[in-house]
Design brief:
Length: 494
Protein backbone atom coordinates (compact mmCIF):
# COMPACT_ATOMS: atom_id res chain seq x y z
CA UNK A 1 0.00 0.00 0.00
CA UNK A 2 1.13 3.59 -0.65
CA UNK A 3 1.51 5.87 2.38
CA UNK A 4 -0.89 4.44 5.03
CA UNK A 5 -1.59 7.96 6.33
CA UNK A 6 -1.30 9.73 2.99
CA UNK A 7 -4.98 10.63 2.71
CA UNK A 8 -4.95 12.04 6.23
CA UNK A 9 -1.87 14.22 5.61
CA UNK A 10 -2.40 15.47 2.06
CA UNK A 11 -5.30 17.13 0.30
CA UNK A 12 -6.05 16.71 -3.38
CA UNK A 13 -3.80 18.85 -5.60
CA UNK A 14 -3.72 19.13 -9.37
CA UNK A 15 -1.11 20.68 -11.67
CA UNK A 16 -1.32 24.40 -12.34
CA UNK A 17 -2.37 25.27 -15.89
CA UNK A 18 -0.47 27.99 -17.75
CA UNK A 19 -1.91 31.50 -17.21
CA UNK A 20 -4.94 32.14 -19.43
CA UNK A 21 -3.44 35.30 -20.92
CA UNK A 22 -0.43 33.27 -22.07
CA UNK A 23 -2.04 30.10 -23.37
CA UNK A 24 -4.81 31.68 -25.45
CA UNK A 25 -2.10 32.99 -27.78
CA UNK A 26 -0.79 29.55 -28.72
CA UNK A 27 -2.09 26.05 -29.45
CA UNK A 28 0.12 24.12 -27.06
CA UNK A 29 -1.26 22.03 -24.20
CA UNK A 30 -2.51 24.12 -21.33
CA UNK A 31 0.06 22.63 -18.91
CA UNK A 32 3.62 23.98 -18.83
CA UNK A 33 6.01 21.58 -20.64
CA UNK A 34 3.71 18.56 -20.55
CA UNK A 35 0.94 17.44 -18.23
CA UNK A 36 3.14 14.70 -16.78
CA UNK A 37 6.12 16.97 -16.20
CA UNK A 38 3.97 19.69 -14.62
CA UNK A 39 2.71 17.12 -12.12
CA UNK A 40 6.04 15.58 -11.12
CA UNK A 41 6.68 17.75 -8.03
CA UNK A 42 3.39 16.72 -6.38
CA UNK A 43 2.53 13.36 -7.87
CA UNK A 44 4.21 11.03 -5.34
CA UNK A 45 2.30 12.59 -2.42
CA UNK A 46 -0.90 12.53 -4.47
CA UNK A 47 -0.44 8.84 -5.35
CA UNK A 48 0.24 8.31 -1.63
CA UNK A 49 -3.35 9.37 -0.86
CA UNK A 50 -4.58 6.05 -2.31
CA UNK A 51 -5.95 3.84 0.49
CA UNK A 52 -5.46 0.52 -1.38
CA UNK A 53 -9.05 -0.39 -0.59
CA UNK A 54 -10.03 -4.02 -0.12
CA UNK A 55 -12.57 -3.56 -2.89
CA UNK A 56 -11.15 -0.86 -5.18
CA UNK A 57 -14.25 0.58 -6.83
CA UNK A 58 -12.01 2.68 -9.11
CA UNK A 59 -11.35 -0.57 -11.05
CA UNK A 60 -15.03 -0.83 -11.91
CA UNK A 61 -15.27 2.89 -12.66
CA UNK A 62 -12.58 2.50 -15.33
CA UNK A 63 -13.81 0.54 -18.38
CA UNK A 64 -10.25 -0.70 -18.91
CA UNK A 65 -10.14 -2.14 -15.40
CA UNK A 66 -6.91 -0.23 -14.75
CA UNK A 67 -5.24 -1.64 -11.62
CA UNK A 68 -5.06 1.78 -10.03
CA UNK A 69 -3.97 1.11 -6.41
CA UNK A 70 -1.00 -0.93 -7.68
CA UNK A 71 0.41 1.85 -9.81
CA UNK A 72 -0.34 4.46 -7.14
CA UNK A 73 1.79 2.41 -4.76
CA UNK A 74 4.61 2.02 -7.31
CA UNK A 75 4.67 5.78 -8.03
CA UNK A 76 4.75 6.55 -4.32
CA UNK A 77 7.76 4.18 -4.06
CA UNK A 78 9.43 5.90 -7.03
CA UNK A 79 9.32 2.65 -9.08
CA UNK A 80 8.36 4.16 -12.44
CA UNK A 81 9.36 1.08 -14.44
CA UNK A 82 7.05 -1.09 -12.33
CA UNK A 83 4.30 1.53 -12.62
CA UNK A 84 4.34 1.70 -16.43
CA UNK A 85 4.42 -2.10 -16.63
CA UNK A 86 1.22 -2.31 -14.52
CA UNK A 87 -0.42 0.54 -16.42
CA UNK A 88 0.37 -0.85 -19.86
CA UNK A 89 -0.97 -4.24 -18.77
CA UNK A 90 -4.50 -2.81 -19.04
CA UNK A 91 -4.19 0.34 -21.19
CA UNK A 92 -2.41 0.57 -24.54
CA UNK A 93 -2.50 4.37 -24.62
CA UNK A 94 -2.37 6.01 -21.18
CA UNK A 95 -1.02 9.24 -22.72
CA UNK A 96 -4.43 9.65 -24.42
CA UNK A 97 -6.64 8.76 -21.45
CA UNK A 98 -4.34 10.53 -18.95
CA UNK A 99 -5.02 13.74 -20.87
CA UNK A 100 -8.53 13.29 -22.23
CA UNK A 101 -10.50 10.89 -20.06
CA UNK A 102 -13.28 12.36 -17.87
CA UNK A 103 -11.98 9.94 -15.23
CA UNK A 104 -15.02 7.92 -14.12
CA UNK A 105 -12.48 6.10 -11.90
CA UNK A 106 -12.23 9.21 -9.73
CA UNK A 107 -15.96 9.53 -9.13
CA UNK A 108 -15.86 5.85 -8.07
CA UNK A 109 -12.81 6.32 -5.76
CA UNK A 110 -13.70 5.24 -2.19
CA UNK A 111 -11.93 8.30 -0.76
CA UNK A 112 -14.49 10.36 -2.69
CA UNK A 113 -17.24 9.26 -0.29
CA UNK A 114 -16.23 11.87 2.27
CA UNK A 115 -13.10 13.58 0.84
CA UNK A 116 -11.74 14.64 -2.54
CA UNK A 117 -10.80 11.54 -4.56
CA UNK A 118 -7.28 10.55 -5.55
CA UNK A 119 -6.04 12.35 -8.70
CA UNK A 120 -5.94 9.05 -10.59
CA UNK A 121 -5.89 10.54 -14.09
CA UNK A 122 -2.96 12.80 -13.15
CA UNK A 123 -1.00 9.84 -11.77
CA UNK A 124 -1.71 8.01 -15.02
CA UNK A 125 -0.38 10.78 -17.26
CA UNK A 126 2.68 11.26 -15.02
CA UNK A 127 3.56 7.57 -15.31
CA UNK A 128 3.34 7.48 -19.09
CA UNK A 129 5.06 10.82 -19.71
CA UNK A 130 7.92 9.83 -17.41
CA UNK A 131 8.10 6.40 -19.08
CA UNK A 132 8.45 7.92 -22.55
CA UNK A 133 11.09 10.39 -21.33
CA UNK A 134 13.03 7.61 -19.61
CA UNK A 135 13.01 5.29 -22.63
CA UNK A 136 10.80 2.75 -20.84
CA UNK A 137 8.28 2.48 -23.69
CA UNK A 138 9.78 0.11 -26.22
CA UNK A 139 8.28 -1.69 -29.22
CA UNK A 140 6.96 -5.15 -28.36
CA UNK A 141 7.22 -6.92 -31.70
CA UNK A 142 5.77 -10.44 -31.82
CA UNK A 143 8.19 -13.36 -31.54
CA UNK A 144 6.45 -15.32 -34.31
CA UNK A 145 3.92 -14.61 -37.03
CA UNK A 146 0.63 -16.47 -37.30
CA UNK A 147 0.36 -16.04 -41.06
CA UNK A 148 -3.15 -14.57 -40.54
CA UNK A 149 -4.12 -11.15 -41.84
CA UNK A 150 -6.45 -8.56 -40.31
CA UNK A 151 -7.78 -5.29 -41.75
CA UNK A 152 -8.76 -2.62 -39.24
CA UNK A 153 -10.96 0.07 -40.78
CA UNK A 154 -10.64 3.36 -38.92
CA UNK A 155 -7.66 4.62 -36.93
CA UNK A 156 -9.25 6.13 -33.80
CA UNK A 157 -8.50 4.74 -30.34
CA UNK A 158 -10.63 1.61 -30.93
CA UNK A 159 -8.89 0.69 -34.19
CA UNK A 160 -5.44 1.47 -32.81
CA UNK A 161 -5.99 -0.60 -29.64
CA UNK A 162 -7.29 -3.57 -31.65
CA UNK A 163 -4.39 -3.25 -34.10
CA UNK A 164 -1.73 -3.11 -31.38
CA UNK A 165 -3.13 -6.14 -29.55
CA UNK A 166 -3.45 -8.19 -32.76
CA UNK A 167 -0.01 -7.23 -34.09
CA UNK A 168 1.59 -8.22 -30.80
CA UNK A 169 -0.32 -11.52 -30.98
CA UNK A 170 1.51 -12.26 -34.24
CA UNK A 171 -1.10 -11.36 -36.85
CA UNK A 172 -0.30 -9.17 -39.85
CA UNK A 173 -2.43 -6.06 -39.37
CA UNK A 174 -3.18 -3.18 -41.74
CA UNK A 175 -5.03 -0.11 -40.42
CA UNK A 176 -6.97 1.82 -43.07
CA UNK A 177 -7.96 5.46 -42.57
CA UNK A 178 -9.78 7.73 -45.00
CA UNK A 179 -8.30 10.95 -43.56
CA UNK A 180 -4.82 11.90 -44.71
CA UNK A 181 -3.34 11.09 -41.30
CA UNK A 182 -3.85 8.35 -38.74
CA UNK A 183 -5.57 8.99 -35.38
CA UNK A 184 -9.36 9.27 -35.84
CA UNK A 185 -10.98 11.99 -33.73
CA UNK A 186 -7.74 12.34 -31.75
CA UNK A 187 -6.06 13.68 -34.89
CA UNK A 188 -8.46 16.23 -36.31
CA UNK A 189 -11.26 16.49 -33.74
CA UNK A 190 -9.49 17.04 -30.43
CA UNK A 191 -7.53 20.30 -30.43
CA UNK A 192 -3.82 20.59 -29.79
CA UNK A 193 -4.42 22.49 -26.51
CA UNK A 194 -6.05 19.35 -25.06
CA UNK A 195 -3.55 16.85 -26.50
CA UNK A 196 -0.58 17.76 -28.66
CA UNK A 197 -0.35 15.49 -31.69
CA UNK A 198 3.26 14.63 -30.84
CA UNK A 199 1.84 12.17 -28.29
CA UNK A 200 -0.16 10.42 -31.00
CA UNK A 201 2.77 10.39 -33.43
CA UNK A 202 5.13 8.95 -30.84
CA UNK A 203 2.73 6.07 -30.16
CA UNK A 204 2.23 5.45 -33.88
CA UNK A 205 6.02 5.24 -34.21
CA UNK A 206 6.07 2.44 -31.63
CA UNK A 207 3.24 0.63 -33.43
CA UNK A 208 5.03 0.84 -36.80
CA UNK A 209 8.17 -0.63 -35.26
CA UNK A 210 6.07 -3.48 -33.87
CA UNK A 211 4.89 -4.23 -37.40
CA UNK A 212 1.44 -2.60 -37.73
CA UNK A 213 0.99 -1.24 -41.25
CA UNK A 214 -0.86 2.07 -41.70
CA UNK A 215 -2.67 3.10 -44.88
CA UNK A 216 -3.97 6.68 -44.59
CA UNK A 217 -6.01 8.39 -47.32
CA UNK A 218 -7.95 5.20 -48.18
CA UNK A 219 -11.74 5.49 -47.98
CA UNK A 220 -12.54 1.79 -47.70
CA UNK A 221 -15.74 0.97 -49.56
CA UNK A 222 -15.23 3.60 -52.24
CA UNK A 223 -14.57 2.49 -55.84
CA UNK A 224 -11.30 4.49 -55.92
CA UNK A 225 -9.92 2.58 -52.94
CA UNK A 226 -10.25 -0.73 -54.80
CA UNK A 227 -11.34 -2.13 -51.40
CA UNK A 228 -15.09 -2.61 -51.42
CA UNK A 229 -16.75 -4.93 -48.90
CA UNK A 230 -16.24 -8.15 -50.94
CA UNK A 231 -12.62 -7.39 -51.78
CA UNK A 232 -11.87 -6.66 -48.15
CA UNK A 233 -13.25 -10.01 -47.04
CA UNK A 234 -11.40 -11.83 -49.84
CA UNK A 235 -8.10 -10.20 -49.01
CA UNK A 236 -8.13 -10.50 -45.20
CA UNK A 237 -8.80 -13.37 -42.80
CA UNK A 238 -10.65 -11.01 -40.43
CA UNK A 239 -11.92 -7.44 -40.50
CA UNK A 240 -12.42 -5.04 -37.58
CA UNK A 241 -14.80 -2.17 -38.24
CA UNK A 242 -13.67 0.80 -36.11
CA UNK A 243 -15.08 3.61 -38.22
CA UNK A 244 -16.54 5.69 -35.41
CA UNK A 245 -19.96 7.35 -35.21
CA UNK A 246 -19.30 10.11 -37.69
CA UNK A 247 -22.84 11.10 -38.68
CA UNK A 248 -23.40 14.39 -36.86
CA UNK A 249 -26.77 15.49 -35.42
CA UNK A 250 -28.29 18.43 -37.30
CA UNK A 251 -30.75 21.18 -36.37
CA UNK A 252 -33.24 21.57 -39.21
CA UNK A 253 -34.91 24.82 -38.08
CA UNK A 254 -35.73 27.74 -40.41
CA UNK A 255 -32.56 29.43 -41.71
CA UNK A 256 -30.41 26.27 -41.47
CA UNK A 257 -29.29 26.85 -45.10
CA UNK A 258 -27.66 30.23 -44.31
CA UNK A 259 -23.91 30.69 -44.69
CA UNK A 260 -21.81 30.62 -41.52
CA UNK A 261 -23.56 27.60 -39.93
CA UNK A 262 -21.27 24.58 -39.61
CA UNK A 263 -20.86 21.28 -37.88
CA UNK A 264 -18.09 21.25 -35.24
CA UNK A 265 -16.33 18.57 -37.28
CA UNK A 266 -16.11 20.97 -40.24
CA UNK A 267 -14.58 23.68 -38.05
CA UNK A 268 -12.24 21.73 -35.74
CA UNK A 269 -10.28 19.69 -38.32
CA UNK A 270 -9.48 22.86 -40.27
CA UNK A 271 -8.36 24.62 -37.09
CA UNK A 272 -6.19 21.63 -36.15
CA UNK A 273 -4.51 21.66 -39.56
CA UNK A 274 -3.85 25.38 -39.34
CA UNK A 275 -2.50 25.06 -35.78
CA UNK A 276 0.05 22.55 -37.06
CA UNK A 277 0.95 24.67 -40.10
CA UNK A 278 -0.67 22.21 -42.52
CA UNK A 279 -2.49 23.50 -45.63
CA UNK A 280 -6.29 23.05 -45.86
CA UNK A 281 -7.47 20.12 -47.98
CA UNK A 282 -8.04 21.02 -51.65
CA UNK A 283 -7.17 24.63 -50.81
CA UNK A 284 -10.57 25.32 -49.19
CA UNK A 285 -10.90 28.57 -47.26
CA UNK A 286 -10.67 27.97 -43.52
CA UNK A 287 -13.71 28.71 -41.33
CA UNK A 288 -12.47 31.31 -38.86
CA UNK A 289 -14.07 32.71 -35.71
CA UNK A 290 -11.89 35.82 -35.79
CA UNK A 291 -13.85 39.01 -34.97
CA UNK A 292 -17.21 37.16 -35.05
CA UNK A 293 -19.96 36.61 -32.54
CA UNK A 294 -19.79 32.83 -32.22
CA UNK A 295 -22.64 30.68 -30.95
CA UNK A 296 -21.94 27.05 -30.14
CA UNK A 297 -24.97 24.80 -29.87
CA UNK A 298 -24.21 21.94 -27.49
CA UNK A 299 -22.74 21.97 -24.00
CA UNK A 300 -20.40 18.93 -24.09
CA UNK A 301 -16.73 18.20 -24.86
CA UNK A 302 -17.06 19.01 -28.55
CA UNK A 303 -18.66 22.36 -27.70
CA UNK A 304 -15.82 23.13 -25.27
CA UNK A 305 -13.30 22.32 -28.02
CA UNK A 306 -15.07 24.77 -30.36
CA UNK A 307 -14.98 27.34 -27.55
CA UNK A 308 -11.23 27.01 -26.90
CA UNK A 309 -10.55 27.12 -30.64
CA UNK A 310 -12.73 30.23 -31.17
CA UNK A 311 -10.92 31.92 -28.26
CA UNK A 312 -7.59 31.30 -29.98
CA UNK A 313 -9.06 32.66 -33.22
CA UNK A 314 -9.90 35.85 -31.26
CA UNK A 315 -13.67 35.79 -31.66
CA UNK A 316 -15.58 38.95 -30.68
CA UNK A 317 -17.85 36.96 -28.34
CA UNK A 318 -18.57 33.27 -27.69
CA UNK A 319 -21.81 31.84 -26.32
CA UNK A 320 -22.33 28.15 -25.66
CA UNK A 321 -25.95 27.03 -25.59
CA UNK A 322 -27.27 23.96 -23.81
CA UNK A 323 -30.83 22.72 -23.94
CA UNK A 324 -30.64 21.03 -20.52
CA UNK A 325 -30.77 23.01 -17.25
CA UNK A 326 -27.50 24.01 -15.55
CA UNK A 327 -26.25 21.02 -13.54
CA UNK A 328 -25.39 21.35 -9.83
CA UNK A 329 -21.76 21.92 -8.76
CA UNK A 330 -21.84 19.10 -6.19
CA UNK A 331 -22.94 15.49 -6.61
CA UNK A 332 -26.77 15.41 -6.39
CA UNK A 333 -28.37 13.02 -3.92
CA UNK A 334 -29.98 11.06 -6.74
CA UNK A 335 -26.59 10.25 -8.29
CA UNK A 336 -24.73 8.76 -5.31
CA UNK A 337 -21.17 7.45 -5.11
CA UNK A 338 -19.80 5.50 -7.03
CA UNK A 339 -21.83 6.62 -10.05
CA UNK A 340 -20.57 9.19 -12.55
CA UNK A 341 -22.62 12.31 -11.67
CA UNK A 342 -23.80 15.04 -14.02
CA UNK A 343 -22.23 18.10 -12.41
CA UNK A 344 -21.15 21.54 -13.61
CA UNK A 345 -17.69 21.16 -15.17
CA UNK A 346 -15.17 23.87 -15.96
CA UNK A 347 -12.82 22.74 -18.72
CA UNK A 348 -9.67 24.69 -19.58
CA UNK A 349 -11.61 26.32 -22.44
CA UNK A 350 -14.31 27.53 -20.03
CA UNK A 351 -11.66 29.15 -17.82
CA UNK A 352 -10.50 31.20 -20.80
CA UNK A 353 -13.59 32.87 -22.26
CA UNK A 354 -17.22 32.52 -23.24
CA UNK A 355 -20.63 32.53 -21.66
CA UNK A 356 -22.73 29.43 -21.04
CA UNK A 357 -26.51 29.68 -21.39
CA UNK A 358 -28.64 26.76 -20.15
CA UNK A 359 -32.19 25.59 -20.77
CA UNK A 360 -32.56 27.28 -24.15
CA UNK A 361 -33.66 26.05 -27.55
CA UNK A 362 -32.88 27.54 -30.97
CA UNK A 363 -36.06 28.30 -32.94
CA UNK A 364 -34.61 29.95 -36.01
CA UNK A 365 -31.49 31.31 -37.68
CA UNK A 366 -31.83 34.80 -39.18
CA UNK A 367 -29.74 35.99 -42.09
CA UNK A 368 -28.40 39.19 -43.66
CA UNK A 369 -28.87 40.37 -47.25
CA UNK A 370 -25.98 38.20 -48.43
CA UNK A 371 -27.46 34.96 -47.15
CA UNK A 372 -25.19 34.67 -44.12
CA UNK A 373 -26.35 34.11 -40.57
CA UNK A 374 -26.52 37.23 -38.41
CA UNK A 375 -28.59 36.09 -35.40
CA UNK A 376 -30.31 33.22 -33.61
CA UNK A 377 -33.80 33.25 -32.22
CA UNK A 378 -33.75 31.60 -28.81
CA UNK A 379 -36.41 30.58 -26.34
CA UNK A 380 -36.12 29.39 -22.75
CA UNK A 381 -37.33 25.84 -22.20
CA UNK A 382 -38.29 23.67 -19.29
CA UNK A 383 -38.55 19.88 -19.00
CA UNK A 384 -41.97 18.96 -17.67
CA UNK A 385 -43.15 15.39 -17.40
CA UNK A 386 -40.30 14.29 -19.69
CA UNK A 387 -41.30 16.85 -22.34
CA UNK A 388 -39.58 20.00 -23.48
CA UNK A 389 -41.85 23.05 -23.16
CA UNK A 390 -41.10 26.55 -24.40
CA UNK A 391 -41.60 29.33 -21.85
CA UNK A 392 -43.90 31.94 -23.29
CA UNK A 393 -42.54 35.45 -23.67
CA UNK A 394 -38.84 34.44 -23.49
CA UNK A 395 -38.07 34.57 -27.21
CA UNK A 396 -35.04 36.72 -27.97
CA UNK A 397 -32.47 37.29 -30.67
CA UNK A 398 -28.73 36.99 -30.07
CA UNK A 399 -26.10 38.04 -32.63
CA UNK A 400 -24.19 35.26 -34.40
CA UNK A 401 -22.01 35.45 -37.49
CA UNK A 402 -20.67 31.94 -36.89
CA UNK A 403 -22.80 29.08 -35.55
CA UNK A 404 -21.22 25.76 -34.64
CA UNK A 405 -23.23 22.58 -34.05
CA UNK A 406 -21.83 20.40 -31.28
CA UNK A 407 -24.92 18.33 -30.56
CA UNK A 408 -23.37 14.90 -30.83
CA UNK A 409 -23.42 12.11 -33.37
CA UNK A 410 -26.24 9.82 -34.38
CA UNK A 411 -24.18 6.81 -35.45
CA UNK A 412 -21.97 5.42 -38.20
CA UNK A 413 -22.43 6.35 -41.84
CA UNK A 414 -24.42 3.60 -43.60
CA UNK A 415 -23.70 4.19 -47.33
CA UNK A 416 -20.45 2.57 -48.44
CA UNK A 417 -18.78 -0.14 -46.42
CA UNK A 418 -21.54 -0.80 -43.87
CA UNK A 419 -24.10 -1.38 -46.64
CA UNK A 420 -21.66 -3.33 -48.83
CA UNK A 421 -20.83 -5.76 -46.02
CA UNK A 422 -24.52 -6.10 -45.17
CA UNK A 423 -23.88 -6.12 -41.41
CA UNK A 424 -27.01 -5.91 -39.23
CA UNK A 425 -27.67 -2.68 -37.35
CA UNK A 426 -29.12 -2.40 -33.86
CA UNK A 427 -32.24 -0.37 -33.11
CA UNK A 428 -30.16 2.79 -32.66
CA UNK A 429 -28.54 2.42 -36.08
CA UNK A 430 -25.14 1.26 -34.79
CA UNK A 431 -23.39 -1.85 -36.11
CA UNK A 432 -24.83 -4.79 -34.12
CA UNK A 433 -22.48 -7.39 -32.66
CA UNK A 434 -22.66 -10.51 -30.52
CA UNK A 435 -21.08 -10.85 -27.08
CA UNK A 436 -17.70 -11.41 -28.76
CA UNK A 437 -17.92 -8.23 -30.93
CA UNK A 438 -18.61 -10.27 -34.10
CA UNK A 439 -21.13 -8.69 -36.45
CA UNK A 440 -23.81 -10.64 -38.32
CA UNK A 441 -21.17 -11.32 -41.02
CA UNK A 442 -18.70 -14.04 -39.93
CA UNK A 443 -15.14 -12.79 -39.60
CA UNK A 444 -16.23 -9.15 -39.43
CA UNK A 445 -15.95 -7.58 -35.96
CA UNK A 446 -16.69 -4.09 -34.67
CA UNK A 447 -15.17 -1.93 -31.93
CA UNK A 448 -15.65 1.58 -30.57
CA UNK A 449 -18.22 4.21 -31.46
CA UNK A 450 -19.29 2.35 -34.65
CA UNK A 451 -21.00 -0.25 -32.45
CA UNK A 452 -21.45 1.55 -29.10
CA UNK A 453 -22.54 4.91 -30.51
CA UNK A 454 -20.89 8.19 -29.57
CA UNK A 455 -18.80 7.55 -26.46
CA UNK A 456 -15.33 8.16 -24.99
CA UNK A 457 -11.73 7.28 -25.72
CA UNK A 458 -11.46 4.98 -22.72
CA UNK A 459 -14.45 2.93 -23.91
CA UNK A 460 -13.03 2.80 -27.44
CA UNK A 461 -9.68 1.45 -26.18
CA UNK A 462 -11.46 -1.08 -23.96
CA UNK A 463 -13.61 -2.26 -26.89
CA UNK A 464 -10.60 -2.41 -29.22
CA UNK A 465 -8.74 -4.61 -26.74
CA UNK A 466 -11.73 -6.89 -26.20
CA UNK A 467 -12.52 -7.19 -29.92
CA UNK A 468 -8.87 -8.12 -30.53
CA UNK A 469 -9.21 -11.04 -28.11
CA UNK A 470 -12.24 -12.31 -30.04
CA UNK A 471 -10.51 -11.89 -33.41
CA UNK A 472 -7.47 -13.78 -32.11
CA UNK A 473 -9.70 -16.61 -30.93
CA UNK A 474 -11.56 -16.63 -34.27
CA UNK A 475 -8.25 -16.88 -36.17
CA UNK A 476 -6.40 -19.39 -34.01
CA UNK A 477 -9.04 -21.21 -31.93
CA UNK A 478 -7.88 -19.78 -28.58
CA UNK A 479 -6.53 -16.57 -27.07
CA UNK A 480 -4.61 -15.25 -24.11
CA UNK A 481 -5.44 -11.63 -24.91
CA UNK A 482 -7.46 -9.72 -22.25
CA UNK A 483 -11.18 -9.10 -22.70
CA UNK A 484 -11.85 -6.05 -20.48
CA UNK A 485 -15.52 -5.45 -21.29
CA UNK A 486 -18.40 -7.09 -23.16
CA UNK A 487 -20.17 -4.90 -25.75
CA UNK A 488 -23.10 -4.56 -23.33
CA UNK A 489 -21.02 -2.91 -20.56
CA UNK A 490 -22.27 0.57 -19.73
CA UNK A 491 -21.01 3.50 -17.61
CA UNK A 492 -21.86 3.64 -13.90
CA UNK A 493 -24.65 6.21 -14.19
CA UNK A 494 -28.20 6.45 -12.89
C1 LIG B 1 -14.47 17.21 -30.95
C2 LIG B 1 -14.49 15.99 -30.09
C3 LIG B 1 -13.85 16.02 -28.85
C4 LIG B 1 -13.84 14.89 -28.06
N1 LIG B 1 -13.18 14.96 -26.88
C5 LIG B 1 -13.09 13.86 -26.10
C6 LIG B 1 -12.36 13.88 -24.88
O1 LIG B 1 -11.82 14.91 -24.48
N2 LIG B 1 -12.29 12.73 -24.17
C7 LIG B 1 -12.87 11.57 -24.59
O2 LIG B 1 -12.74 10.54 -23.91
N3 LIG B 1 -13.58 11.52 -25.74
C8 LIG B 1 -13.70 12.63 -26.50
N4 LIG B 1 -14.43 12.59 -27.66
C9 LIG B 1 -15.02 11.30 -28.09
C10 LIG B 1 -13.93 10.37 -28.64
O3 LIG B 1 -13.07 11.11 -29.49
C11 LIG B 1 -14.54 9.20 -29.40
O4 LIG B 1 -15.42 8.52 -28.53
C12 LIG B 1 -13.47 8.23 -29.88
O5 LIG B 1 -12.51 8.86 -30.69
C13 LIG B 1 -14.10 7.06 -30.65
O6 LIG B 1 -13.09 6.25 -31.13
P1 LIG B 1 -13.29 5.29 -32.37
O7 LIG B 1 -11.97 4.62 -32.57
O8 LIG B 1 -14.47 4.43 -32.18
O9 LIG B 1 -13.62 6.23 -33.61
P2 LIG B 1 -13.01 7.58 -34.21
O10 LIG B 1 -12.03 8.21 -33.30
O11 LIG B 1 -14.20 8.38 -34.63
O12 LIG B 1 -12.22 7.09 -35.50
C14 LIG B 1 -12.88 6.50 -36.58
C15 LIG B 1 -12.05 6.73 -37.83
O13 LIG B 1 -12.55 5.91 -38.89
C16 LIG B 1 -12.38 6.60 -40.10
N5 LIG B 1 -13.25 6.03 -41.11
C17 LIG B 1 -14.61 6.05 -41.16
N6 LIG B 1 -15.05 5.40 -42.26
C18 LIG B 1 -13.96 4.96 -42.92
C19 LIG B 1 -13.77 4.23 -44.12
N7 LIG B 1 -14.80 3.83 -44.85
N8 LIG B 1 -12.50 3.96 -44.52
C20 LIG B 1 -11.42 4.37 -43.77
N9 LIG B 1 -11.57 5.07 -42.62
C21 LIG B 1 -12.80 5.35 -42.19
C22 LIG B 1 -12.75 8.03 -39.75
O14 LIG B 1 -12.18 8.92 -40.69
C23 LIG B 1 -12.14 8.17 -38.36
O15 LIG B 1 -10.85 8.73 -38.42
C24 LIG B 1 -14.48 13.71 -28.49
C25 LIG B 1 -15.16 13.68 -29.70
C26 LIG B 1 -15.17 14.82 -30.50
C27 LIG B 1 -15.91 14.80 -31.79
S1 LIG C 1 -8.50 5.49 -18.30
FE1 LIG C 1 -9.92 7.04 -17.46
S2 LIG C 1 -11.21 5.85 -16.04
FE2 LIG C 1 -9.39 4.58 -16.48
S3 LIG C 1 -7.90 5.06 -14.84
FE3 LIG C 1 -7.47 6.45 -16.57
S4 LIG C 1 -8.60 8.32 -16.13
FE4 LIG C 1 -9.46 6.70 -14.84
Amino acid sequence: MADPKGFLKEGRKVAERRPVEERVHDWNEVYPGSAGRALLPIIAEQAGRCMDCGIPFCHSGCPLGNIIPEWNDLVWRDDWEGAIERLHATNNFPEFTGRLCPAPCETACVLGINQDPVTIKNVEVSIIDKAWESGLVRPQAPEWLSGRTVAVIGSGPAGLAAAQQLTRAGHTVAVYERADKIGGLMRYGIPEFKMEKQHLDRRLGQMKREGTVFRAGVDVGSEESGLTGDKLRERYDAVVLAMGATEARDLPVPGRELGGIHQAMEFLPQANRAALGEPQLDGVEQILATGKNVVIIGGGDTGADCLGTSTRHEAASITQLEIMPEPPTARPAGQPWPTYPMTFKVSSAHEEAGERVYAVSTKEFRGDDEGNVRALLLVDVVFEAGRLTEIEGTEREIPAELVLFAMGFVGPEKPGLVEQLGVDLDDRGNVARDKGYQTSVPGVFSAGDVGRGQSLIVWAIAEGRAAAASVDEYLTGSTTLPFPIPPTARPLVV
